[in-house]
Amino acid sequence: MSDEKPPQLVDYFVVAGLAEGSRALEEEQQPRPARPGEPITDVAVIIRSQGEEVPQGFTCIETSTSGHPVDLNAGLLNNPQMFLCYKRGRDKPPLIELGVHYEGKDRPKPGYQILDTTPYSRSANLASGSPGHQRTFLTFRRAAEPPGHHTLGVTDICLVMPSKGESTPLTFCRVDKNLNTSMWGPALFLCYKIAVAKDNTLVYEAGLLSRYPEQDSESFPLPESVPVFCLPMGATIESWPVGTKYPLPVFSTFVLTGASGDKVYGAAIQFHEAFPRERLSEAQALRLGLLSVVDRRPVPGRSLHTRKSICVLSHWPFFDVFRKFLMFIYRYSISGPHVLPLETHISHFMHNVPFPSPQRPRILVQMSPYDSLLLCRPVSSPLPLSGASFLTLLQNLGPDNAVALLVAVLTEQKLLIHSLRPDVLTSVGEALVAMIFPLRWQCPYIPLCPLALADVLCAPVPFIVGIHSSYFDLYEPPRDVIFVDLDTNTIFQSEERKLLSPRALPRRPCKVLLASLHSLSQQLDELLSAPGEEEPPELVLSDAEAAGARRAQLELEARAAFLRFMACALRGYRSFLRPIAPAPAPAGRDAGSLFALQGFLRSRERAYQRFYGQLLRTQLFTQFIEDCSFASDREPCLEFFDTCVDKVQVDLEKPEDTPLMELDDPRGGEHTVFITPPEQPAGPDGAEPPARYRYDGFPTLRPELLEPPRDPLVAQLCQARSSAPSSPAPRRTKQEMKVAQRVAQKSSAVPELWARCLLGHCYGLWFLYLPTHVRAAPAKLRALQLAYDVLRKMEQHKVVLPDEVCYRILMQLCGQYGEPVLSVRVLLEMKRAGIVPNTVTYGYYNKAVLESKWPAGTQGGRLRWAKLRNVVLGAAQFRQPLRQRQRRRASGDPPGAPAPPAPRPPLQRQTTWAGRSLREPGPAPRLVKSGSLSFPSPARAGPGEPPVPPATPSPPPPRARGPPGSADGSLSDIATDDSGCDEGPGGGPGGGPGGGPGGGPGAATPRRGLAAKLQQLLSPGKRPPPAPLGAPPGGGGAPGLRAAGRRPLLTRSLAESLLRPRQRPESTASESSVSLGSELDLSDASGGSGGAPKSTEPCTEGGAGTEPPALEVLLSSCSRCPGCAALVFDEELMAGWTSDDSNLNTSCPFCCRCFVPFLSIEIRDLRRAPSPPGAGPVPPSPRGPVLSDRRRCLELDGTPGLCNGCGETPPPGERVAFAYLSPLVLRKELESLVENEGAELLARPELVDSHPIIFWNLLWYFQRLALPSSLPLLLLGSQHAPRDPQPPEAWRVRVRLLWDVLSPDPESCPPLYVLWRLHSAVPPRLQPWAPPAPPVSLALLEALLAHVGLNEVHKAIALLLETPAAPAAPRAPHRSIYRELLFLTLAALGREHTDIAAFDRRYRAALGRVPGAPGRDEQRRRRAQPPSAKASECRRAFGAPPEC
């Protein structure tokens, strides 16, 4: 596992300003006429018709912007001639706003002064010609005292007449009140401009003064243009009057976009400091007004200053945190003296402040005893990270202008945003780019453009550029640009480029968007205009947090409003994507070949064709189609957008009730990391060191004072574990996790859906493991084909997959191993399953198709070789009878002699799923219906007829399956019946203990007599009354059974086959790891290469062969409830799990208590097991016996080394227990493991020791579903297996899954099925049981079986309910009556002859017939209760473990 560098909060610290060799900006350009050097401080109205003259120092406005004469009273008859005058200066605070007041109609605004008289004390009413007209006055607002050199103020005033074709000049603010209130004359409007009026300023291009670190990072070198963005208006030298107040530092932000599209965020503050006069030349001094023009004498009363900037660069938009840090550094530089140098605080913040992680979401940084900042983890959102502020956009432009800009961005117009506030430009620019999600702006984007890069405004391509409004005082702007003035809330459109009207947008989505924005704008105004009442100090902090949370909520709602509009506008786009099915052409990435443009356009309404036509021609949409068609880093975002498209309803005229976005609180964690200030060095004798660091200006950083990281462990504590390089395909997106969680919550209320949900997650676990399995497989294509067959059969059996990860992983592996044709088949399989691939899956599909090498187009060579192979095989088949005839003639047999009967096969080790040997094919199966719980009657030969010889075995055809809904509650009511000579449990798979000739009364033992009577009782043909239960036993049972076992067997009857619900493993203790698999059977009985093979030999024993296993692993999930001490079995544990993927608990079905279940494991090392002297190898059998095969079991009693079909029970090995996890929890943990430590860990033995819970749970589920894996072989290299000099490849591992407990309780009474085995002289798997109580006798067991066989289950329940009441009965058993009867039936008659689903139905029906038993008391009711519907569905989906 390779370590990745954790996220770094700050990459660089930069100081920018006037450097040596900086070029002047104003000398190289053609500036506009000189801007005014002083602001406007006064306005006045004069009446020339009454002899009033322009006051001294005032300027009169006599014409409009286009030269038309203007008179403020031109609309009245006999009107006095009134004109507007203004005065500039710095003797008083400048005007910052103008207005018009209608007396009696408008209320005076606070802070405004009404200009009601002229300088000559006459009325300044602009409508004074007639007493009946509305009295109109001018108003103004003045800046606060005292004025600064950089105070914003009104710098220009003009009058416009729209009737003359005049419009508001650029960067001017228009007062929307007509100065002419009469019915006559043209309308006249007042316009004014706000700017910073300053003179005696030289502007130069900013340069780099110092930086830290001095060396560039390999992943992100410092861009050379950073100083220019720190000071976008240039590094200035300014001459101020002596005593001028320093302006406050100005905070600004900017965004740099790399070639790969990655964004880097910059935060800077600009400030002024003194500049030495000695560095100026004479020409510079003259331009600054420091020397007189005539005699070059110094001008007194002037001070010299320059503008600097400090900046931090980061990949994270923590603008508020960076502003506090930069302000602290600036204040530190202008105060002092200090003990620590400035460089110490800078290096401390960069090195020792970690990036917040999910484990430590809050970082509290104490920079000084009085300064601190809180760094919180970014809000978890599926949208791309940005510094956008939609509230700032609404606050500065309003809802209508925001929608107009949405149209401009979607149609790729040239947008120039300008403002006098540089910090607002970046927030609004980022909002314009973010509002068009999922589209991504592809053209030039500079939210804060420096003057040095102003040439980009002349580019012939669309752009979004933000610039300071003073740009228009220096340069002439281009004509084909749309100007957006954030200070005046206006949009200026040129005649050359007109915007589409918002009416061109889809009507209903646009209407909902406007309504949402108006509502949010109103709420924002109320939040900002809330009265500031005096509150107690303890409520100030809480109110601030509440206001911050409210702003965050409004921000989320504004973003969701734009997201909903885009989802409605692009609805249905995915159906027009064109997958690449054949071998791709060279132009396979063209948008026209990837998307049906005309089809999408025709699907839209005709009224909006113009808008969609322009949208489809943009680079935005072209890049969007490429992102949707190929794998990219935007897949999670696009997948989230697809879910939003599915949620929205276009026809609604209001937002949906379900929010598209939810606010994840990043401060939800309890852990906060506290970062202390830098430590001060200790002085001599422990005294406080002297303060010796004082700065006259911001210093140049000294490398020797920049300290290395003080405590690197702090960063490690706050960082999550670094991600290992792994494939992104197995990862679920956050949206997929949320959808899976919602589906699990809905499914948990429906038993069948819950079982299918768990099963789908189990298959998801195997597909997460699939890349590891394919890497280890010798035949990659065969492994991929196996996975594809698993997908097909999952679709056939309607397995509910929680997401598309299964398909995605297989597609990625197809591309990795060069199988594009299989990838196309996987996509077609998805479509057949009704699954529309999301963006992530679609991208991996196209990547696999494009990057893989396709097979040759002509298949002639393959076809010819296939034909030749068929001819050779056909000729060989024709020659085979001739060879057989020649062999018979050579042996001397007469031509008409019948062929000798096939010899009875010896006992062979079971190595296939059907229980047969790989050497000998089984008989052809017969399809029968499983519909009853009745037991088989032996197939009898007619009188005088010889026993039917065994038929010649033939290869079994594929298993047929029935429809999902069958009568017995299983997914398939079609089973296979192997008619032939194979011996099943009880002498044959369908035969009972007396299934052959010679099994008559003369050879019967007491145990055999019971079995024969049971067969007669339970046969469908005739059912005589049962014999007395207390019949005395006879003798000579075992020899008779052995003799009967050597005789040929009869063919099974149809009645026998009716008992078999499905083809199942016919040995419960076979050599291979017999996993029952699932009743959603996903493999064929033919044992072919396709599909998931039922034989789990490759995944448990590590390969084919007859070598004895090295390890035997027993697994059991049966757990004891700590509340009621009842045993809770596997299907009941599954039913008790919840949909929470972090909850390990299940609920007890008897007492409803929550507890953590455990997987019990026993590991037996068979490599050193002592073997009896002289004992040879056990002859293999075509099928391992089952528990009902009593004749074979007793026959094997005398064979050393075998017991009930398995080897002699070895001494108990190592026993461990680990938590049994729900598939939902396990998948989450497995994804976290692969993410943090890499998928390679799944193939190493370290997985067993370092993550045992994940390992054993994966092994359990893979064995349950018979899915191939190499997990068992990892045990050979773990601490559970001692090291052996023999190579591990020579050993195998046998895994056995158990239904019952792994280790018994020595103090409890054995269960009934164990007692049955003890009475039948069959040694049980578990030995240390307590002796049975007197009431539990053979007679009781025979009576229970008789009741069950006669369909009198209620009598069996009543008998068990009364049995513990005997005086000698042991304490109350921990097993339910249902389990006792079920396991007893399975042990006595075998798994093949018992339909568990039918048994459940009959048990539930019989429970109501028990006289008073369920309601007698609560304890007895719990003992007799059947499994819940959830438990039955889980067992039906997963199947039951093969052994008790």
Question: Your description of this structure?
Answer:
With 1444 residues, the chain is α+β, with helices and mostly antiparallel strands. The protein is built from 39 helices and 36 strands. The strands form eleven sheets. Strands 1, 11, 12, 13, 14, 15 and 16 form a seven-stranded antiparallel β-sheet that branches. Helix 17 packs antiparallel against helix 18, helix 32 (1312-1319) runs parallel beside helix 35 (1377-1389) and helix 33 packs across helix 35 (1377-1389).
Major β-sheet, in short? 7 strands, antiparallel
% residues in beta strands: 5-15%
- Per DSSP E runs of 2 or more residues, the count of β-strands stands at 36
Class computed from helices, strands and strand pairing: alpha+beta
Straight-line distance between termini: 42 Å
Globular, elongated, flat, extended or rod-shaped: what is the shape? elongated
Instruction: Count up the helices.
Output: 39
Assign a percent range to the helix content: 25-40%
Uncertain segments: 27-31, 537-541, 665-669, 711-728, 902-1105, 1169-1209, 1365-1373
Mean pLDDT: 74
User: What's the gyration radius in Å?
Assistant: 44 Å
What brief labels describe this structure?
32% helix; 1444 residues; 39 helices; alpha+beta; 14% strand; 36 strands
Show the helix and strand layout.
Layout: E1 12-17, E2 40-47, E3 58-61, E4 82-88, E5 95-102, E6 113-115, E7 136-142, E8 152-160, E9 173-175, E10 189-196, E11 201-204, E12 207-212, H1 226-230, E13 235-241, E14 250-257, E15 263-274, H2 282-287, E16 302-314, H3 319-334, H4 342-352, E17 362-366, E18 372-376, H5 390-410, E19 414-419, H6 422-434, E20 445-446, E21 463-468, H7 471-474, E22 482-485, E23 490-492, H8 507-528, H9 537-569, H10 591-594, H11 597-602, H12 609-616, H13 619-629, H14 635-647, E24 672-675, H15 712-718, H16 734-747, H17 751-776, H18 780-796, H19 805-816, H20 820-832, H21 839-851, H22 860-891, E25 925-929, E26 974-978, H23 1006-1018, H24 1037-1045, H25 1054-1057, H26 1097-1100, E27 1111-1116, E28 1119-1120, E29 1127-1128, H27 1130-1136, E30 1146-1147, E31 1154-1155, E32 1158-1165, H28 1190-1197, E33 1202-1203, E34 1206-1207, E35 1214-1219, H29 1223-1237, H30 1246-1250, H31 1252-1264, E36 1293-1298, H32 1312-1319, H33 1338-1349, H34 1353-1362, H35 1377-1389, H36 1396-1407, H37 1413-1416, H38 1418-1424, H39 1429-1438
Parallel strand pairs: 17-24, 19-21, 19-22, 20-21, 27-36
Antiparallel strand pairs: 1-12, 1-16, 2-4, 3-4, 5-7, 6-7, 8-10, 9-10, 11-13, 13-16, 14-15, 15-16, 17-18, 22-23, 25-26, 27-32, 28-29, 30-31, 32-35, 33-34
Helix pairs in contact: 5-6, 5-8, 8-9, 9-14, 17-18, 17-19, 17-29, 17-39, 18-19, 18-20, 19-20, 19-21, 20-21, 23-33, 24-28, 27-39, 32-35, 33-34, 33-35, 34-36
